[in-house]
Design a protein that fits this description.
Distance between the termini: 61 Å
Shape: globular
Strand content: 15-25%
Oligomer: single chain
Largest sheet: 7 strands, mixed
CATH topology of the largest domain: Rossmann fold
Number of domains: 3
Radius of gyration: 28 Å
CATH architecture of the largest domain: 3-Layer(aba) Sandwich
CATH superfamily of the largest domain: P-loop containing nucleotide triphosphate hydrolases
CATH class of the largest domain: Alpha Beta
Helix content: 25-40%
Structural class: alpha/beta
Amino acid sequence: MAAAVVNTSRTQPGRLQRQQMLEHLRNAGLVDVSAIARAELVAVRTGQPVEQVLNQLGSLSDEDLAQAYAEVARCEIWDPAARPIAVDPTQLGVSVDFLRRARVAPISAAAGVLVCAACDPLDDEALSGLVFATGRKVTVLVARPGDWRRSFEAAFADPKDDAPAPTDERRLEREVDLVADAGEGSGTRLVAGAFEAAIAAGASDIHFEPRRNDLRIRLRVDGRLVDHRIVSADLAAPAVSRVKVIANLDLGERRLPQDGRTTFVIAGRQVDVRVATSPTVFGESAVLRILDRSTVPLDLDLLGLSAPVVSVLKQAAKAPHGMFLVTGPTGSGKTTSLYALLQTFAGSPKKVLSVEDPVEFHFEHVAQTQIAPNLGLSFARVLRSFLRQDPDVILVGEIRDPETAAVAVQAAMTGHLVLASVHANDALAVLPRLQDMGVEPYQLAAGFRGAAAQRLVRRLCPVCRSRRGPSEGEAAFAHSIGLPPPLAAFDAVGCPGCNNAGFKGRTAIGEAFLASEELLRAVADRSAPSLIADIAHRNGLGGMAADGVGKAILGETTFEEVMAAVNG
């Protein structure tokens, strides 16, 4: 397939080809009818082609868009590695701003022919303008939007682009890709830039925080919030409006919190995003939770937990019935561990049901239910319905009230395996926590099978970490949990590989135990917590702090991270 040659004399430009594009997308099953209908509404308002809107909204990947353009426009797809940008626009008589607005990159110019890469090879107005301005024939390669953006900015980036001053807002408004309105366009680029930065940094959340004089955008990377950008307060409303558009939220409702979700397509893979907005005194704030399943290995052996904890989890998954609980504070990876347990049932003949708030990842082998409190669909109500559906395994996203606890224990006592999370300080604390919610000791003795607790700590960069001897405080911490003085400790240093943070990713520290007959008898007899703890430790409960110290000695994390996680 050759590069397309721009024909400035054709009388039926792209309308027919635009229609062919939509037909191709429908026939190939690349987008569904509802996504096209939504994109058409936005396209009417913005003047953008529908297929471009589909791409901007995340319903159509860069690769699929480029392949469709290549089919319809009969041109090749640009490979920036093989054919980099090698033309100075000023020598052609065109400006970088024009090329940026048109999303065109000049590749080569020889023998009166200009070869360009264009994100939209059907944009006759822009390409004809390029022919007129340069006086050359123009042949077009179709560019994936992401390839074009990275290559163009690398070739023609303005150093001021990294921190635009208020005087740069007019330039930003001219470069909008999706929305014609100036304010909304700036918000669109702001949200897109924040999302790209979050994906590149491996962030779990994006925070848009309006303040009196500005809008602060922060990313949560490895559990810590870091500043991404601080921009004019005028961009706060457009940015949050853009977030609402992509999450199908009510643009007109600014007085009440709203929740939604959407999906982006990044490098050919789907990334789910959960969105929450909330009113503040300086405008609406928004938080985007990034749920990228490809970065979260739902495999017990790959979670970073120590071998004894993984062994307990695997044994729990094989139990025919009973209740196994996972505990930890918010953001400790409880849901990931529970999902890894669910993944062990893939391909098995067991019927697996889950009730969650919210459903974060989707499984083909699990019937997942999202609670809806405003409709009266609570955890307890869904659980009661589950008991009439002959399940083998039930996942409860969180046991948070006496009613849910009672139904979950009932399910565990009647031949079902119940996996659930509950908030408690450690693995043993789940027992008094359930009793506080009204579960009787004899019920626990009949249905309880064990528990695990975990925390997430930042993982040291293996390239730049620095080994040293332990400090007095670190030795004292090890002694306080019954361990000998550590042989070594490590510090974070920082290098280009970890963006000078000294840490790269996170790992889990945890503890877990399976309930023995002796422990269950002690629970039924209402024995002292100290006796129950002694029994659990004799049966293999090692302690989360000891697990963390072991990882600190090996250089996987620091003592400071472990102490903060255990004591915080």
